[in-house]
Amino acid sequence: MKKNILLALSAALLALASCGGNNNASSTPTSDASTPASVELSAPGKTAKDTLLSWNNCEALTALTNFVESSDAKGTKTYIPKEDRIAVFDMDGTLYGELFPTYLEYVMYEYRVLDDPTYKDKASQDEIDFANEIRAGVHNNSYPSGTDMRHANLAAKAYSGMSLKEFDDYAKAFLKKPIPTFNNLTYGTAFYQPMREVVDYLKGNDYQVYVVSGSDRYLCRALLEDGLGIEPNRVIGMDVRLKATGQGDTEGVNYQYTLEDDIYRTDELLLKNLKFNKVANIVQEIGKKPVLSFGNSGGDQAMHRYTLQDNVYPAEAFMLVADDLVRDYSYLTEEKITSLNTQWSDQDFNVISMKNDFKTIYGNNVTKKA
């Protein structure tokens, strides 16, 4: 079986407008203290029986556990040395919810531009128009072509001037906000429970886990370090140019960092980390070919193919299909689900069905609002 993607609609996004902020440009948004804002990380588990508790028996789970067990069988052709046990994960729609009702980085951008009292009066008309397009796109289930790159460039502008510490604080405060389309779920806790268990299982079997996302690297770091226990140096994402506060227009190659300097975000997009860019970043930042790759959409195919191509070790790729319209949101029709399953299977990707393979999606206490 094979994979899918996710996303959906909900008028409840407008509830974000009620979220407040502080009074200076670098202040962080307020949160709802009555809503749980953190998750309790479980210890990495060695065995599937002890760790993968939220999975039904399925082909994808069998493929994963057989792979991990065989990779630890010394003296066999399937053995993989610990230093080469590298797993790469896409984030949105693979580890983390993508449909409440849209991507996390889009929701935070909307809040920043339309609702944040410290910034909305400073936003350019281009930023405002695009934020309203995203909000409208949620309701008609459609985004214009090129939305991903428009967002990347305008989001760079929306957070420009923030130090990395200021941005991290801002993102973490936003992550404490409740998701208006679910009960008992915040943006900081919206991980798929079965996939969280996969991360724990791999860590328990000496795998190095990297997240390779199309979303902003520093937003991913803020989310993943506290929410999933992923170290910042194992997060790869979209990048903006960074500068030192005293640098001005001097090129970095000619500027000496001083003890009085801080590092801040500029409005210049360096890279949107999708498709081949994911492969290039894996090569540059990890320096070794992964043996496991997890994704959910066409933007992850390149990463999967690179993992499987001419690997000196056994390798597997997994595609998650968001086919559960009852417990989560999805814009997929039955016809599209069938098409995706065939498409991913034909490329030798293992397909994970949220509907059939997950006992729970976000945890048993989380429910989707009508």
How would you portray this structure in words?
The chain has about 375 residues and is an alpha/beta fold. The protein has a domain at about 50-70 and about 85-100 and about 185-240 and about 270-370: HAD superfamily/HAD-like (Rossmann fold), CATH 3.40.50.1000. It contains twelve helices and nine strands. It has helices spanning about 50, 60-70, 105-115, 125-140, 145-160, 165-175, 195-205, 215-230, 275-285, 300-310, 335-345, 355; strands at about 85-90, 180-185, 210-215, 235-245, 265-270, 290-295, 315-320, 350-355, 365-370. It has a seven-stranded mixed sheet, with helices on both faces. The chain has a two-stranded antiparallel sheet with strand order 2-9. Helix 3 (about 105-115) crosses helix 4 (about 125-140) and helix 6 crosses helix 8 (about 215-230). It is globular, with a radius of gyration of 20 Å. The two termini are about 30 Å apart.
Topology:
Layout: H1 48-51, H2 59-71, E1 86-89, H3 104-115, H4 125-140, H5 147-158, H6 164-175, E2 182-183, H7 193-204, E3 208-216, H8 217-228, E4 235-244, E5 263-271, H9 276-286, E6 292-295, H10 301-308, E7 316-321, H11 334-346, E8 350-353, H12 354-357, E9 367-368
Parallel strand pairs: 1-3, 1-6, 3-4, 6-7, 7-8
Antiparallel strand pairs: 2-9, 4-5
